[in-house]
Write a structure and sequence with these properties.
Length: 484
């Protein structure tokens, strides 16, 4: 088995020497298009072994095996000229002419906005030679690489605005575990980023429900992702290949919100939505016009909530990461929450500490779970608490999936406790649909009268002054005795 961790470390070290790589985001994008080409070529070799009639969408000279596999192959300026002058232009062209649901569409989606940032063909050859040591048809290599790929995605948290693309693995995992997507159910992430939710869903269905080769064959068709930005789309497509989705044509690059709400047809509806839509930002002008007048807003997270209500089938279920702002906001937010509570059963809100998404944002977030088709009667709240002795999560000590074990134990046997409480729909209406309800079981020290506190403070100051005077006097007497 290849030393995957060592290979990735050497690739990073090589790229740091290249003048064209500036920052983590560029380095990761550069790494991933190379990974994609190698993974795609390895998978094509496997497919050809099973199907002699298979035809690659990539022309022969552009296939990895024909320009990259030989360690003594082209390098230096010749390699740069080939990559920049032939490989990228022709792969982009494949995307422009591709039709249907085949691999050519995937190629086009990946390379439509990808770039080669490296300026040294010699260093590029060194990177290529390192990745050639990995055989993605060997399950051990693919599994270990997949685990380390997750670490690579986590690095995006420190890559400026790119941090929005990564949701902590523990959060994606607990949402998928509690939603429990099954074989045959359409599972969608309409803002899929790097594919964390989709990858967790694939593993969950495969581990719990796939029993036969036919089951495995059906799995890719039930996974649907849409991502607006090119870098996370590239990362997601590669992630799907690593998780055994050889032709991830259901992962599209598009803005889900750009489609008018009324244009989503019954055939588009899904059984499960699991997502962390972008929050804290606004959509471009005009996007809100795709939504009913009463629900129009430019806040991205709010628009996604409206969209998800439209996308779910009756009986469909959703697990979503959502910011505090919508829970307590009024005006349009109140109308959106009213619609949610009338059309769906918002049965659970899990309140997370502020630092879960640090360092990207300190906005407090929640996990909302709801089912489409029945109105809400009660909302259960569950407060996730930091581990004992911890003041916050951070980059080196992120939230862990094991910390959600108490939530999982409580999920199917709900009782009120110091962490859990239930609020009726009548109370929520009385609060004008403000869902930002703090834990009533938290012991809060009683607020005291400011004048009383000020009087106590003055007494303390007087006591300190008196003590200081006595100490000064005692010290003076002691010095006088010593002088005698």
């Amino acid at each position: 088995m290849a030393d995957i961790r060592g290979i990735l470390k050497r690739i990073r070290d090589i790229m740091r020497q290249d003048a064209g790589i500036s920052g983590d985001a560029q380095r990761i994008e550069q790494m991933v298009w190379i990974f994609f080409m190698k993974i795609f070529d390895d998978r094509e070799q496997e497919i050809q072994n099973l199907d002699s009639g298979y035809t690659s969408p990539i022309p022969g000279p552009l296939r990895w095996r024909n320009w990259a596999a030989d360690k003594e192959g082209i390098t230096g300026d010749a390699l740069l000229d080939f990559v920049n002058g032939e490989l990228f232009p022709k792969l982009k062209e494949i995307g422009l002419t591709a039709t249907g649901e085949g691999s050519a569409t995937v190629i086009g989606g990946v390379f439509g906005d990808a770039y080669n940032f490296m300026k040294s063909g010699t260093l590029l050859r060194q990177v290529i030679n390192e990745i050639n040591a990995v055989d993605f048809n060997k399950s051990n290599d693919r599994h270990e690489f997949g685990e380390l790929y997750e670490e690579t995605l986590r690095e995006l948290q420190s890559a400026g605005a790119a941090g929005e693309f990564y949701t902590p693995r523990a959060v994606t995992q607990v949402i998928v575990d509690l939603i429990d997507p099954k074989l045959g159910e359409k599972v969608m992430d309409p803002a899929c980023g790097t594919g964390g939710f989709l990858a967790c869903a694939i593993n969950h269905v495969r581990d719990n429900y796939v029993k036969t080769a036919e089951d495995e064959k059906a799995l890719p068709g039930q996974i649907i992702g849409i991502e607006k930005k090119p870098l996370p789309h590239l990362l997601c497509t590669t992630n799907m290949l690593l998780h055994g989705i050889d032709t991830p044509t259901n992962v599209r690059r598009d803005n889900t919100l750009s489609r008018p709400l009324v244009d989503w047809q019954p055939s588009d509806k899904v059984d499960v939505v699991i997502t962390n839509p972008p929050f804290g930002g606004t959509e471009e002008p005009g996007i809100e016009n795709n939504f009913p007048q009463a629900l129009r807003t430019r806040e991205t997270a709010d628009l996604f909530l409206v969209l998800i209500m439209q996308l779910l089938k009756t009986g469909g279920r959703c697990g979503i990461v959502f910011p505090d702002g919508t829970l307590f906001g009024g005006d349009t937010k109140t109308k959106i929450k009213t619609k949610l509570l009338e059309e769906c059963n918002l049965h659970t809100i899990v309140r997370l500490p502020k630092s879960v998404f640090a360092p990207y944002t300190s906005i407090r977030t929640n996990l909302l779970f709801f089912d489409k088709g029945e109105p809400t009667k009660d909302v259960w709240y569950y407060e996730h608490q930091l581990p004992a002795g911890r003041k916050a999560y951070n980059k080196t000590k992120p939230i862990q999936i094991s910390e959600f074990d108490p939530l999982k134990e409580w999920w199917n046997n709900r009782e009120e406790s110091e962490q859990a409480w239930k609020v009726s729909i009548d109370e929520i209406r009385e609060r004008d649909f403000n869902l930002d309800i703090e834990n009533p079981n938290t012991v809060v020290e009683e607020l005291r009268d400011p004048e009383e506190l000020l009087a106590e403070y003055q007494e303390v100051l007087a006591g300190v002054a008196d003590l200081t005077g006595r100490l000064t006097k005692a010290l003076g007497n002691s010095l006088s005795e010593t002088a005698k």
